[in-house]
Amino acid sequence: QGQFKPLAGSNPYSGTIDALKTVPEWRVELVVADDLIMDAVHAMKSAHPYEVPAYDVIKLADF
Question: How far is CA 30 from each of CA 1, 6, 9, 10, 13, rounded to the nearest angstrom?
Fold first, then answer.
């Protein structure tokens, strides 16, 4: 689970100002062709309900 505390002046998607909020989190892993990586990142950002999602892009070696 993740948690956050919306600060004064924010417009939280979930929770209330100055109150700690706990929410479920999910880990998503994808295998994506090189030419589709940016499309996948943009789709994830578009679907994310608040601010900035945490993500990593890891290129795997092909042996």
Answer: 21, 30, 36, 32, 26
Predicted confidence (pLDDT) per residue in 5-45, tens digit: 988 998 888 889 999 999 888 888 999 999 999 999 999 99
Q: Residue 17: give the domain boundaries.
A: 2-47
Does 7 reside within a domain? yes
N residues, the chain: 63
**How many structural domains comprise the chain?**
1
The pTM of this model reads 0.65
Please name every residue paired with 22 in a beta bridge, in sequence order, or none if there are none.
Answer: 3
